[in-house]
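Write out this protein's structure.
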Amino acid sequence: MNLVSLIISIIESIYIIYMFRYFKTTYSFNLIPLKFLDNNEYLKHQKYYSQEAVSHICPFGHDMAFVIAGFLILRNFIPCLMEYSNWIVGLIFLGCFLNLNCVVYILPVLLIELNFEKLINRFVKK
């Protein structure tokens, strides 16, 4: 386990949980609302601009924030998770396309993940 990797994962996890569960705004990035999601309350989310600040993430996204954060932290302790990390992050990113707000919120984490090895090598002297 690398301490720098763990610290980056903890920061990413806190960010994901905050943005997916607690962040509220009046602006929505959902330019293409998916109507089939309206049939299920668990997948239903605010799709348009609102007058008062609300969360534009559905209850499923609220719950998935903990799953994503758990993965980001556990991969530092379970070697096979780190081995498949890029694939799992890619699948998480694809899942975010159910709600374009999620895509926008997860982009900073994705950029860090794409440069993860470079960041680790920069902070850890070999």
